Amino acid sequence: VEVELSLCKAVRFIYNIVVFVRMRSSKLCKLVLEATCAFILISCSAAKLPDDIKPCVAGDDKCIIENINTVLAKKYEGDESFGLSKLEPFKMDDIIISQDSTSPLAIHLALRNPLGYGVKDLTTRKVKGFGKNPDGRHEIIIAAPALTLLSDYKIDGKVLILPIQGEGKANITLVQPVIRIRIDATSRNENGNTFMDIKEFRIECKVKRMIMQFDNLFNGDKALGDNINSFLNENWQEIYAELKVPFYDAIAKAMNAAAKQVFKMIPYNEIFQI
């Protein structure tokens, strides 16, 4: 696969310089070179699944679950051969939460450089969709013992009735999360292959508990910091209710980007037997 990718890169380079040799080549040579490059580029544009992941019959829930679990458990470091980015740690965009004074969580919270851990421990419980035609809605339900977000943070405001202020390292852990992924997609035909284009990607998450630790609250005042962290964890349900939508959006955006890259590289008809 690596050799094929290198060949593709070389051909793209050759194709880009064709214009510079037009005046020095015969018309026949020029046409042959352009046609050859175009043919190889079309072949290169459609990647295939790695050997340890076999295509499933479209709509075969059991096979699809097994393949997703193989990717999560064995490919979490990424696999360029089919466009899979690194999943552990799972990189996300900064999460910015601003709630007004009427909210129980009247804070401005910035989580910078967030990284997610626990993806390799995810298992797929159920899938729906992924039939012969990629058009429509597809669903995946996954679960893990825990998912942890580590980041730099800055917070200022009030949580319920207590003031909170600080800047440092944050650890937010979701205990026994169950995540429902909803994908709305359309199909696209290109060079004899069918591709799935993701139009909307949403998630919802139920958790048994959320555990939070914000270091260096109140400029490192340990007594105040410990009390606030205890208060946050005692009232985690109210706090999760306020935080979950921005969390969902950030996670969904990153997962969407990863999924789009895979479906962009590999035709739907290579992933599923249709």
3D structure, described in words:
Helices cover 36% and strands 36% of the residues. By secondary structure, the protein is of the alpha+beta class. The chain has two domains: 1-44; 52-273, TULIP domain (Bactericidal permeability-increasing protein, domain 1), CATH 3.15.10.30. A hairpin with a 2-residue loop joins strand 9 and strand 10 (193-206). The longest helix is centred in the last third of the chain and has 30 residues, at 236-265. The chain is elongated. Mean pLDDT is 86; it is low at 1-7, 17-25 and 28-45.
Distance between the termini: 24 Å
The CATH topology assignment of the largest domain is Bactericidal permeability-increasing protein, domain 1
CATH class of the largest domain: Alpha Beta
Question: With helices defined by DSSP (H or I, 4 residues minimum), what is the helix count?
Answer: 6
Overall number of structural domains: 2
Number of strand segments:
12
How much beta, percentage-wise?
35-45%
Structural class: alpha+beta
Rg result: 24 Å
The percent of residues in helical segments reads: 25-40%
- The arrangement of helices and strands along the chain is HHEHEEEEEEEEEEHHHE
Outline type: elongated
Mean pLDDT: 86
Q: Write the CATH architecture name of the largest domain.
A: Super Roll
Largest sheet: 6 strands, antiparallel
- Fourth-tier CATH superfamily name of the largest domain: TULIP domain
> Uncertain segments of ≥5 residues (pLDDT<50)?
1-7, 17-25, 28-45
InterPro entries: Haemolymph_juvenile_hormone-bd (IPR010562), To_sf (IPR038606)
Protein name: Protein takeout
Pfam families: JHBP
Keywords: Biological rhythms, Signal
